Amino acid sequence: QVQLVESGGGLVQPGGSLNLTCVASGFTFSNYAMRWYRQAPGKERELVAFIRNDGAITNYPPSVKGRFTISRDNARNMVYLQMNSLKPEDTAVYYCNFVDHWGQGTQVTVSS
Predict the structure, then answer these.
(1) What pLDDT is recorded for position 89?
(2) Distance (Å, rounded) from C-alpha 17 to C-alpha 32?
(3) Rounded CA gap, 87 and 109, in Å?
(4) Is 18 helix (H, G, I), strand (E, B) or coil?
(5) Are 38 and 95 in contact (CB under 8 A)?
(6) Do the Cβ atoms of 43 and 35 come closer than 8 Å?
(7) How far apart are CA 64 and CA 84, in angstroms?
(8) 48 with 67: CB under 8 angstroms?
(9) CA dihedral 85, 87, 89, 92 (to 10 degrees)
(10) pLDDT of 49-99, one tens digit each?
(11) Phi, psi of 30 (to 5 degrees)
(12) What integer pLDDT is reported at residue 85 of this predicted model?
């Protein structure tokens, strides 16, 4: 049974940082690319980071490039999202994803 469990969200001031973690189980993690998405209230779900199965290639949209970093540990079946210089517009529920599997999400709120 595939499981993706996110953690690490919370309330942070503008300019602050958070590190999200996704623990994966139920599939051969090292065989799959992983993605982080986010969804703000009233908006569509948005891809914010991609990492290839071996970690050699990453990709980001312009909205987060230079501020967010995705990484993975294939030995621990974990994928991370380091978020720096956070802005109020980064407020959303953040989801871990591979293929058509999703975690439950973790709330990130950026506010003073």
Answers:
(1) 96
(2) 27
(3) 9
(4) strand
(5) yes
(6) no
(7) 9
(8) no
(9) 70
(10) 999 999 999 999 999 999 999 999 999 999 999 999 999 999 999 999 999
(11) -70, -10
(12) 98
Amino acid present at 42: G
Q: Which residues contact 32 (CB under 8 A, 6 or more apart)?
A: 53, 98, 99
Q: Please compute the mean of the pLDDT values over residues 30-52 and round it to a whole number.
A: 97
Write down the pLDDT at residue 75: 98
Nearest to 77 by CA among 41, 35, 30: 30
Structure-token pair, residue 5? 């469990």
Give yes or no for a contact between 71 and 80, defined as CB atoms under 8 angstroms apart: yes
Q: DSSP secondary structure string, 19-63?
A: EEEEEEESS-GGGS-EEEEEE-TTS--EEEEEE-TTSS-EE--TT
R_g (Cα) of the chain, nearest Å:
13
Which amino acid would we find at residue 91? T
